[in-house]
Amino acid sequence: MGYRFRHSICNEVYQGWDFDKAARHIRETGYEGIEIAPFTLAEDPATIPAGARAEYRRIIRDEGLVFAGLHWLMVSPKGLHVTTPDGELRARSWEHIVNLIDLCADLGPGGVMVFGSPLQRGTTGGSTREEATKRYIDGLAAVAPHAEQRGVRLLVEALPSNQTDVVLSLDEAASIVARISSPAIRTMFDTHNAVEEAAPHAELVEKHFGVIGHVHVNETGGGHCGTGDYDFAPVLATLKRLDYKGWVSLEAFDFAPGAERIASESLRHLESIIEKL
Questions:
Q1: Would 122 be classed as within a structural domain?
Q2: pLDDT tens for residues 35-76?
Q3: Pick from 105, 115, 182: which is nearest to 142 by CA?
Q4: What b/e string do you get for 184-194 counting C-beta neighbours within 10 Å, with b at 16 or more?
Q5: Which one of 84, 163, 192, 245 is at 20 to 30 Å from 4 when CA atoms are compared?
C-alpha cells in the first residue's frame, strides 16, 4: 500500500451542531481525525467531568474517528496570559495548560496541543520581547514532564507579527524545541500563519521536519482550502516524500460557507492535488 495522508478537521466550524452529529458528518465526509477547540466543550475546560470526557471519547471512537488533539488553547476562560510579569496570573495560566494536557489525554491517546494563542502569549505589562519569550520557554519546560507522563505533545506554533511578537518564525520555534529538549515539546506548520516566512514553505518543512508534529492547512486569507490561491502541492509533496506520519488538519477561520461546504470542498481540493503527486 502506498503513502496515505491522514486528514482531520477542527471542530469549531461545526458551530451549533451537537458533538455526535458533527463527528458523524466529519467521518462521512472522509476525514479520519477530529481536532477540538476546548472552548467548544466548556467555558472552562478544566470543569468537564470525567463522565463527559469519557462520553466524548466514546463518540469519537464509535463514529469511526481518531482524536487528533486540541488547538485554540486559551480562548477561555477569559483573562489568562502565559508571559505576563504578573506571577500569580502567569501561574494560573500555566495551570490551565496543565488542565488541558489532562483533557487532551482523556479524550484520546497520542493527542497534540497546538499552542498558538497570540493574545495570551505576546508581550504585556511593559515586558520586552526577550523577557516574554523567556517566560514562555520557562513555562513550556515546567509543564513538559506532565505532558510526557500523559502522552501529550505541546506544539509551539510560529505566528506572524500582526498576531503576536513572541515566536515569529519556524526557525525560532524549532530553536525553542531544541532548548527545552523534551519529547513532549515540538512545533508544527500552518500554511496560513507562515505568511511572513522568507523561505519557501516546502523548504521550511523539510528543514524542520524532525520536530514538526502537526500540519494545519487553510488559505492565507483564512478561508478553507480551494477558496484562495495557496499552492499546497509543494508542501504536500515534501510531506509525502519524507513519509510524514502526523495529521494534515483543516483549520478554517471563515465559517460563513457552512460546515458541510467547508469540510467537503477542502478535502476534495486537497485530494485533487494529492492524486497528482
A1: yes
A2: 999 999 999 999 999 999 999 999 999 999 999 999 999 999
A3: 182
A4: bbbbbbbbbbb
A5: 192
Cell 495522508, residue?
A: 5
Q: Which three cell numbers stand for residue 140?
A: 513550556
Q: Cis (ω within 30 of 0) for the bond into 38?
A: no
Stretch 13-35: mean pLDDT: 98
SS3 70: strand
**Burial (0-12, 13-18, 19+ Cβ within 10 Å), 88:** exposed
Asked, for residue 225, whether it belongs to a domain, the answer is yes
Residue-level pLDDT at 157: 98
Whether the per-residue pLDDT at 1 is higher than 80: the answer is no
Strand (E) or helix (H) holding 250: strand 247-250
What range does the domain containing 197 cover? 6-274
Q: Are 31 and 65 in contact (CB under 8 A)?
A: yes
Q: Which residue has the cell 510526557?
A: 148
CATH of residue 110? 3.20.20.150
| Residue 74 contacts residue 120 (beta carbons within 8 Å) | yes
On whether the CB atoms of residues 39 and 75 are closer than 8 A, the answer is yes
- Within 13 Å, how many C-alpha atoms sit on residue 23's CB side? 20
Looking at the structure of the chain, the number of domains it has is: 1
Q: Is residue 199 part of a domain?
A: yes
Q: Are strands 33-36 and 185-190 parallel, antiparallel or unpaired?
A: unpaired
Q: What is the DSSP letter of 224?
A: P
The cell numbers describing 162, all together, are: 500582526
| pLDDT tens, residue by residue, 266-275 | 999 999 999 9
Helical axes 233-241 vs 259-274, angle rounded to 10°: 60
Q: Is residue 1 domain-resident?
A: no
